[in-house]
């Protein structure tokens, strides 16, 4: 290891000197600008612009410079498309002043897993813009029929690094709005997510198998989880996010598989939940697994009329399929709930329903004040070990 370091640093020094001599540095290098209109995209919301966007992407991706793909005002009809790496360009910024719209017929996207997917890219930023996936027709199909397509995720990043999403609005996704899967160093900021409170499986932001993801200053109104945190999520930072309607912030469902990567080092700060089904939830199927959740800090949350403000549910077994009579193998430890206040819309504001096989340990409640109908609410504990500090209302059952 140290030999490699010794060899590489003089080499890096020479490259740096060359760059300085040539007057090139990343701060001064202006990005090559690529306008999607030049590739035939039409801002009329009717002409299919998929091919034009792909060609613009290929031009950006193949460029040796930092590039900016510019999408001017207007509506652009796009089918399912993949923006694939590896790219020559070290930085690709997609600056959107317009709205990207999905086809009106949901079956066109419905069979694809994703509408707009980025795969194996590095240094990609999306700035501004709106994505309108036209989900309501598919939700209506799901509400009245059984043979509807499952629907597409609006925006996904897979196996990608150094990603920024800033100032984007996602409207009415068919399924999940944004998925971060197998990524490192992802910064999501000032994102707005909007879908009906009864829209099915429209999770706001789903993160899994990813490290160093930040979600800051976002507003998420949707039908399913505000943010869902899947297996293999490490070092996730969530700050100043408002949720509701929806199902709140959820770690899990875990224990889908026997061999599952753990979730660790998760910080959730300054969140507001309004009228959500859950506030801060950890949930696992009642099934065997060697997965775990550890090192979670939930700090400074306000609950407004939340059904389950604080909940750990390790006995998740919807429709009693493939899990009755089993217990969760997921090990939950070292979870802090600090400065959590507001109102519960049900009598039980704190519920720790842990696994009989792997009790929850190191659960800490500090300065929690949750009320129900202006009275103290209740808490419920099973298979949990931990401590309460300072004021805790309802009275802790730890
Ligand atoms: C988030 O929003 C607050 C208030 O609007 C602002 O002061 C802060 O700078 C923002 N943070 C980031 C990282 O954009
Ligand atoms: C935990 O995550 C934060 C970012 O959310 C990071 O700064 C910190 O280094 C991580 N700690 C460990 C021990 O990985
Ligand atoms: C707890 O919250 C209730 C309702 O918001 C409030 O009336 C009460 O004063 C709070 N208790 C403490 C000790 O802060």
TrEMBL record:
The keyword Secreted is assigned to this record: yes
Residue positions of the active site: 247
Family to which this protein belongs: Belongs to the glycosyl hydrolase 28 family.
Name of the molecule in the record: Polygalacturonase-like
GO biological process: carbohydrate metabolic process; cell wall organization
Gene that produces this protein: LOC110425927
GO molecular function, one term: polygalacturonase activity
Keyword Cell wall biogenesis/degradation annotated: yes
Record Pfam families: Glyco_hydro_28
InterPro entries named in the record: Glyco_hydro_28, PbH1, Pectin_lyas_fold, Pectin_lyase_fold/virulence
First and last residue of the signal peptide: 1-29
UniProt KW keywords: Cell wall, Cell wall biogenesis/degradation, Glycosidase, Hydrolase, Secreted, Signal
Subcellular location, record wording: Secreted, Cell wall
Taxonomic superkingdom: Eukaryota
Major place of residence: secreted
């Amino acid at each position: 290891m140290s030999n490699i370091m010794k060899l590489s640093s003089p080499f890096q020094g020479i490259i740096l000197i060359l760059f300085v001599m040539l007057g090139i540095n990343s701060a001064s290098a202006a990005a090559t600008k690529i306008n999607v209109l030049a590739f035939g995209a039409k801002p009329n919301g009717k002409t299919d612009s998929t091919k034009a966007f792909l060609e613009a992407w290929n031009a950006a991706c193949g460029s040796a410079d930092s590039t900016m793909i510019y999408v001017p005002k207007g509506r652009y009809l796009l089918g399912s498309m993949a923006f694939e790496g590896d790219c020559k360009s070290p930085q690709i910024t997609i600056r959107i002043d317009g709205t990207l719209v999905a086809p009106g017929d949901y079956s066109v996207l419905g069979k694809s897993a994703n509408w707009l997917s980025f795969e194996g890219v590095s240094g990609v930023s999306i700035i501004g813009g709106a994505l309108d996936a036209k989900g309501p027709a598919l939700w209506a199909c799901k509400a009245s029929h059984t043979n509807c397509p499952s629907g597409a995720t609006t925006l996904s990043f897979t196996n990608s690094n150094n990603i920024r999403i800033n100032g984007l609005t996602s409207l009415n996704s068919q399924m999940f709005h944004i998925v971060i899967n197998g990524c490192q160093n992802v910064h999501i900021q000032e994102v707005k997510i909007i879908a009906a409170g009864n829209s099915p499986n429209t999770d706001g932001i789903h993160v899994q198998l990813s490290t160093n993801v930040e979600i800051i200053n976002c507003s998420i109104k949707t039908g399913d989880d505000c943010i869902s945190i899947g297996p293999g999520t490490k070092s996730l930072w969530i700050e100043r996010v408002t949720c509701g309607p929806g199902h709140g912030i959820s770690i899990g469902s875990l224990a889908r598989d026997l061999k599952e990567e753990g979730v660790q080092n998760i910080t959730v700060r300054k969140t507001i939940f309004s009228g959500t089904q859950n506030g801060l939830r950890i949930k696992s199927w009642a099934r065997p697994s060697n997965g775990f959740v550890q090192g979670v800090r939930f700090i400074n949350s306000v609950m407004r009329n939340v059904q389950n403000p604080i909940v750990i549910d390790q006995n998740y077994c919807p429709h009693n399929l493939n899990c009755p009579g089993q217990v969760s193998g997921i090990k939950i430890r070292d979870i802090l709930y600090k400065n959590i206040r507001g109102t519960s819309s049900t009598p039980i504001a704190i519920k720790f329903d842990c696994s009989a096989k792997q009790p929850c340990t190191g659960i800490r409640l500090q300065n929690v004040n949750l009320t129900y109908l202006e009275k103290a609410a209740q808490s419920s504990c099973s298979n949990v070990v931990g401590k309460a500090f300072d004021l805790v209302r309802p009275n802790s059952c730890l």
